[in-house]
Protein 1
Amino acid sequence: QVSLAQSGGGLAQPGGSLRLDCRASPVPSGDFEMGWYRQAPGKQRELVATLSRKNLEYADAVRGRFIILREGFQGPTYLQMNNLQPNDTAVYYCVMKTMWHTFWGQGTQVTVSG
């Protein structure tokens, strides 16, 4: 069982920046994909960005503003969010997908309001 601990997020003004951190414990052996999803009030959970050895993907709504980073293969995963807008307000979830399982973080609130 993998535990994903999230930190960061909070409140930002439109045009501001925030960073989300996700730390896995333990880090599994083998290849896996890390990603971020978000769920706004009254909406379905949606993909924000994913990163693996072979693939990097961003949702159209965040491409050019958000960056997903991983600190080496064993290190934490970050979501750097720039030029935040009110419609970025949501609970953000860190996700790890291995060959056999999908693990979710606890969720972190991001609110963009000015």
Protein 2
Amino acid sequence: QVQLVESGGGLVQPGGSLRLSCGAYGFTLDYYAIGWFRQAPGSEREGVSCISSSGYTYYEDSVKGRFTISRDNAKNTVYLQMNNLEFDDTAVYYCARDLPPSGHCSGYGLDPVDFGSWGQGTQVIVSS
């Protein structure tokens, strides 16, 4: 069964850090771009970051300089290191693979319609 599974969310104070993981099951993510998205209550799902099959990375302005995306193909996993977290980072975080697979991340923003095989999400709450 093809699926992506997110983990690593939790409750953290402003300024704190979390590392999210996105594990791929039923397929190898070597040839896919993987995107991280988030959705806050009452808001649409928005892009956060993307990593291409070759390792090119893209970040939305809101997280640039604070978040780092990486991939370990040997572990079939993509990570999102989140530092200096802010209240506005509170959301459910999802990972997804680009479908159909291109292996590329757009340098002009992430559109959820370009991605599929969504995981169930992991909750991140930034609160004092």
